[in-house]
């Protein structure tokens, strides 16, 4: 009577361990990504680099699981894994005494400005959570292998779907539960406690599996169809690489144009995991007649979105990119399920799938930035994934009639050539007419010549958005242009500042160099101090032959601090700025860590009495006015909105918010006349902090 009771209990034990392990595996990615994001300027590549690390560690965990299951006896597997679990738990306990939380490094670990961002992120992640993550990464394949031994005859593949479900829950719990409720240190403690619980449950599974008999190794007479051949393994690898590349490339594309926050990281990753769940748990959900046409439509739609860019609108872009990602993932993962081997090759199968995922991460996070001057990894993934899907379909599903097979092959060839032609044309178009193009960790910079009416100017673009222009002849080459004209919010804050009107010298701070336009406000005796995280931007305005000469032409004393502005300001003594301008957006993407309560508190520590904070909020998709007002309300600041409607070939329409400690700090008549409330002053405002920010609250309708 005891045997039937033990069997379901063991299943529950394995299910809890696998589900909780996957939950923690993905939850920690968001916690650490959130903490590291402001340390590296809020760049989209922060998340891509984090994903690269986690994919490499996932590959390491799968390799460890395959090695244990393939080379060691059940008892030896138990002992080795119990030691790994114990070592990871001890490491977390030691960290609890020296860090704010066992996985939350203190601010002393913030990198220097000279450090390579990619290497710094990989090093921080390895030191912070390397061993615990490796143990968690091994959980899925290792415990499925043990489950096949403990419950012979029961398919372990359903546990893979459970693993992905746990990952999905881990993702959704972060932006909707953990992030708004707790600071980073509190999040780290919740995760660490969860890891200790997981370690106990996993240890129980190890003990149970250690006493079970080993699965008989396949003999040399295994039927050839059951033993995976090299070509089949290569197909596994390719089918895993494309979705991984699509995931990271799509996330980068979205982050460039909107914001780099966990909520937008979650959407593509959720669809990626959803495809695993559907394909492995509900195999009938992958229907070629549905998903292959959707992949074809998605490839065309994504090509259109790449051409249209910001002009397609944020919601339309999100829908196109996310639907396309889901179609590619469903086709590739659905075909993977059709190719899955006998359970005795399970750990090898997962190892190759993980290697494909890691290869996609390496291509997107390391190879593409080194090889390509633009974000070409998404167009490449679109075409290669399309071609692979067509190959798999032609290889296994076309009818055998010669004329129909030939007609189908012709259609695949025409479709592939059409997609390739459109994508190549888009890639070539990105490089046309540029004087200079460079790509690094912080994105793609372009310098070209354009014109406004009959006036020619040199233009700096980051992504698809102009970040400054300079006209080619005097007097326009030394006057403030684009979003920084004298009637803009920042122009009024400087030119109508009480100290400027009284003839006193000003100390001006600017977060975000751009083309250096703000240097034009520096008069004799003034000091203008820029903070710029991207060395490539600084290089455009310095040296013997700069593309932009605002810094050299300024009458004031100009200085440039290279590095993330928040990190630099935290380390500096109070600067005593009269005006501090915040204008560090990348394309239309906002670095949310520069628009939080903690950030504004820091800015005012560097503003002298009577100083003004100017925040640039011009944005195609987001209405940031309520965010700034919410922060001002929390800190007891006086907040005003300035909309500059002037819009010609020299000065463009812009939106700025001005903040001051007191109403009297904005008592200049010219400045008062320009102030115009934009929204109901009694409306409830969202409150963004370092721990929480919600884009849905500020989407433009």
TrEMBL record:
Gene3D superfamilies: Vaccinia Virus protein VP39. This is Fused MFS/spermidine synthase. The lineage of its organism: Bacteria, Pseudomonadati, Myxococcota, Polyangia, Nannocystales. It comes from Nannocystis bainbridge. It comes from the Bacteria. The keyword Transmembrane helix applies. The chain crosses the membrane at residues 12-32, 44-68, 80-98, 118-138, 159-177, 189-213, 234-254, 260-280, 292-312, 318-337, 349-372, 378-394, 401-424. Keywords: Membrane, Polyamine biosynthesis, Transmembrane, Transmembrane helix.
């Amino acid at each position: 009577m005891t045997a039937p009771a033990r069997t379901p209990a063991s299943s529950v034990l394995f299910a809890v361990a696998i589900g909780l392990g996957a939950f923690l595996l993905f939850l920690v990615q968001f916690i650490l990504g959130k903490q590291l994001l402001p340390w590296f300027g809020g760049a989209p590549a922060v998340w891509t680099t984090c994903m690269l690390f986690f994919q490499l560690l996932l590959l390491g965990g799968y390799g460890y699981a395959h090695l244990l299951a393939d080379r060691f006896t059940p008892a030896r597997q138990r002992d080795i894994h119990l030691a790994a679990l114990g070592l990871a738990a001890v490491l977390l306990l030691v960290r609890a005494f020296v860090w704010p939380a066992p996985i939350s490094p203190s601010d002393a670990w913030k990198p220097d400005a000279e450090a390579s961002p990619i290497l710094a992120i990989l090093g921080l992640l390895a030191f912070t959570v390397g061993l615990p993550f490796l143990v968690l990464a091994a959980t899925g394949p290792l415990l499925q292998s043990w489950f096949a031994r403990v419950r012979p005859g029961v398919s372990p593949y359903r546990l893979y779907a459970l693993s992905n479900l746990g990952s999905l829950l881990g993702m959704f719990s972060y932006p909707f539960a953990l992030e708004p409720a707790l600071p980073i240190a509190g999040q780290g403690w919740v995760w660490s406690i969860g890891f200790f619980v997981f370690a106990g449950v996993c240890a129980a599974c190890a003990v149970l599996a250690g006493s079970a008999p080993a699965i008989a190794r396949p003999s040399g007479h295994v039927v050839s169809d059951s033993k995976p051949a090299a070509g089949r393994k290569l197909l596994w690898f390719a089918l895993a690489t494309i979705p991984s590349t699509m995931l990271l490339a799509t996330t980068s594309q979205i982050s460039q144009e909107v914001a780099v926050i966990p909520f937008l990281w979650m959407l593509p990753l959720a669809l990626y995991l959803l495809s695993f769940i559907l394909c492995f748990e509900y195999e009938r959900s992958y229907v070629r007649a549905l998903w292959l046409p959707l992949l074809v439509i998605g490839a065309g739609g994504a090509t259109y979105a790449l051409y249209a860019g910001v002009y397609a609108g944020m919601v339309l872009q999100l829908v196109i990119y996310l639907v396309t990602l889901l179609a590619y993932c469903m086709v590739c993962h659905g075909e993977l399920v059709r190719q899955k081997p006998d359970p005795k090759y399970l750990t090898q199968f997962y190892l190759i799938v993980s290697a494909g995922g890691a290869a996609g991460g390496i291509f997107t996070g390391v190879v593409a930035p080194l090889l390509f001057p633009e974000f070409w990894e998404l167009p490449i993934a679109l075409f290669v994934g399309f071609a692979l899907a067509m190959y798999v379909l032609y290889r296994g599903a076309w009818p055998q009639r010669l004329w129909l097979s030939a007609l189908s092959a012709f259609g695949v060839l025409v479709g592939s050539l059409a997609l390739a032609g459109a994508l190549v044309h888009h890639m070539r178009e990105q490089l046309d007419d540029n004087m200079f193009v460079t790509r690094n960790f912080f994105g793609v910079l372009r310098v070209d010549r354009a014109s406004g009416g009959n006036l020619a100017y040199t233009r700096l673009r980051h992504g698809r958005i102009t970040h400054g222009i300079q006209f080619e002849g005097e007097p326009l080459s030394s006057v403030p242009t684009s979003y920084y004209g004298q009637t803009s919010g920042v122009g009024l804050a400087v030119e109508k500042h009480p100290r400027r009107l009284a003839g006193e010298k000003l100390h001006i701070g600017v977060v975000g160099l751009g083309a250096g336009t703000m240097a034009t406000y520096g008069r004799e005796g003034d000091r203008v101090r820029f903070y710029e995280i991207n060395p490539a931007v600084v290089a455009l305005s310095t040296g013997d032959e700069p593309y932009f000469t605002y810094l050299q032409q300024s009458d004031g004393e100009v200085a440039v601090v290279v590095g993330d502005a928040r990190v630099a300001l935290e380390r500096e003594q109070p600067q005593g700025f009269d005006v501090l301008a915040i204008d560090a957006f990348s394309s239309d993407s906002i670095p949310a860590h520069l628009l939080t309560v903690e950030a504004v508190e820091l800015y005012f520590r560097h503003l002298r009495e009577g100083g003004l904070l100017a925040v640039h909020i011009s944005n195609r998709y987001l209405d940031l006015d309520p965010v700034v007002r919410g922060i001002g309300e929390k800190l007891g600041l006086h907040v005003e909105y300035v909309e500059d409607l002037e819009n010609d070939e020299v000065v463009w329409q812009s939106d700025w918010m001005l903040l001051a400690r007191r109403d009297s700090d904005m008592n200049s008549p010219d400045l008062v006349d320009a102030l115009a409330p934009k929204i109901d002053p009694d409306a409830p405002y969202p409150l963004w902090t370092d721990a929480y920010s919600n884009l849905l609250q500020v989407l433009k309708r």
